[in-house]
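User: quick one, fold this
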Amino acid sequence: MADDRVWLKAYPPGVPSGIELDPHDTLAALLDRACSRYAPQPAFSNMGRTLSYGEFDQLTRRFAAWLQSLPDVVPGDRVAIMLPNVLQYPVALFGVWRAGLVVVNINPLYTANELGHQLNDSGAKVLVVLSQSAGTFNEIAAHTTVQHVLVTGIGDLLGALRGPLVNFVVRYLRGMGGASVPDAAGWPDVMAQTPADYRPLAALAGDDLACLQYTGGTTGRSRGAMLTHSNLLANVRQINSWFSGLNVPGGEVVITPLPLYHVYALTCNCLAYLEIGGHDVLITDPRDMKRFIAELRRWKFTAISGVNTLYQALLQQPDFAKVDFSAVRLVSAGGMAVMPATARRWRELTGTTIHEGYGLSETSPVVCSNPANQHEFNASIGLPLPGTLVSLRDDEGAVVGPGEPGELCMQGPQLMRGYWNDPDATASAMTDDGFFRTGDIAKMDERGYFFIVDRKKDMIDVAGLKVYPNEVEAEITHHPDVIEAACIGIPDERTGEAVKLFVVMRPGARLDRDEVREFLRERLAPYKIPRHVEFRQSLPKSNVGKILRRELRD
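Assistant:
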């Protein structure tokens, strides 16, 4: 199989073909090393407050000790964390791991139904919840497995800085149903009264479960991907070896606008930068563009991660041109396809290149990434990371050749153990030879670069001809009056399915259906031209800004 890894020839100098991983290493040990090595340096900042690695070390020890003091909570039990990007999130995250417990990440904007499913499916015994989300939990509290609740407010770790800054962020969380939780503990009391004397677990090992990362549930109820300490550590090592030519240990400042409860920011920002002593600036509400840009202007940052829609939104802001990008070495993107028009405008305004990558919750998450020495956007997801095998398969499971589309299947040390309590789903997601089926259609060029064509389930069948929504969306966003677009298939009596395009225009622009179709006729084959065009003020998006085609179909 090694001879088939043509992408190795395109690796940057110094990047290894694989990684070595100690089976006894854990995320708790990763934190121990970082806090010892970088104790006086800044670790996390949020809303004007900065925690050094030394302070972070003590806070996570206290949190771990509190968890270990809870009755009927034993190593391996699940702790649900329902927090946005505030300082309490990384404290709770690493406190859970230090106590030998398992993290269940939960979106704080979930409905009671979504929250109840995730709590009960995981069997979580402990819930760490934002006060603004407490009302949602109260609706279902009596019908969950949760035995212990810790409630925290936005400003609990901000000290004297908490006043006006907190008020701005609470607007983002307004309407979430804030309420008190009977018998719940409060963050300030727990952290003040608990000594930092947690008991490190000598038996904790790499193959122990670290995280249940629930998938988006695009085909029904969300499933928990079982990620071990070794899975996450492997991806951290893969990422940091991949970008070793850019990163300066102890000298990186990364902006984190995507939520840490999402696996992209969890691994690529929180874990990967912590290993090298990076300073992680947490953005609680990236939708407040004015304050987001003010935060960007405050820091001499070296890296930022995001998704296409976030970068598009920044480019629309007049003040964004005032942000200093002179120290930036890495702009990463994932979660959804980066539109070439977005990458071009970004390059023109910032002088930096968007490095696109690809991953999933099931793969910790990164599978492929463009290399550190990339200087121009190429619309690819890059090359498989060290130690990762990728093959493209047709519907019969046969491997396809370069230039041919096929389902992207992968193997690697970052691949999950399986789906929590769902062996049938785990088995159906794997090929007979042990590769994970991602559900994404891709092509590989002769150099080993991979290009996502689209989600297999999103493909549109027009009279037997395949139309991939990504292609239509990418072409229409080249129009100067179009901000973003989404493409779906709808039933059609004559062709089986017809292409429908949703378009969001720039303020003040005037476009009609015929102009959209005429623009695309110069760029696409006739069967790909949308028969239906609908103009909208906005498009439905996930918590990380990914456009939700399924909601448009519904």
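User: anything notable?
Assistant: Confidence is low (pLDDT under 50) at residues 167-177.
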